[in-house]
Amino acid sequence: MVKRPFINKPNPISLIRDAIIFFIRHSNTIFRMKSLNIAIMRTFTKLKNQAVPYFDIIKRIEDLETSDQNTQELLKKIVQAISSMQELQNEAKEETKKIGFINE
Fold it and tell me: How far apart, in whole angstroms, are the C-alpha atoms of residue 6 and residue 4?
């Protein structure tokens, strides 16, 4: 008869006890991580809600773009002004200091 090696089977009660001990020891970290995740989700929700009005503006501009010649000329000027503002914003982004891990 072949003797099989002893395998330590997990005891359900000890697993529950270990989980409770882990939760008690690390509860502050767990709650901080949970609040951080909630803050991140709220930030992305705010960003999404701020972007929604711009879709309406873009639709209106596209509708105006097809109406008449005077409107088209005016829209070209507006687009040029927005483009110059975007260029200024891009220049400002390049000058800002990046945060986080920087690979050099």
Answer: 6
Q: Structurally, how many domains does the chain consist of?
A: 1
Predicted local confidence at residue 85, as pLDDT = 82
CA distances from 7 to 3, 19, 45 (A): 12, 22, 50
Range of the domain at 33: 15-95
Rounded Cα distance between 94 and 96, Å, is: 6
Q: Does residue 102 form part of some domain?
A: no
Residue 104 reports pLDDT greater than 60: no
C-alpha span between 61 and 82 (Å, rounded): 13
Q: Of 64, 90, 91, which Cα lies nearest the Cα of 79?
A: 64
For the entire predicted model, the pTM comes to: 0.34
**61 contacts 75 by C-beta, under 8 angstroms:** yes
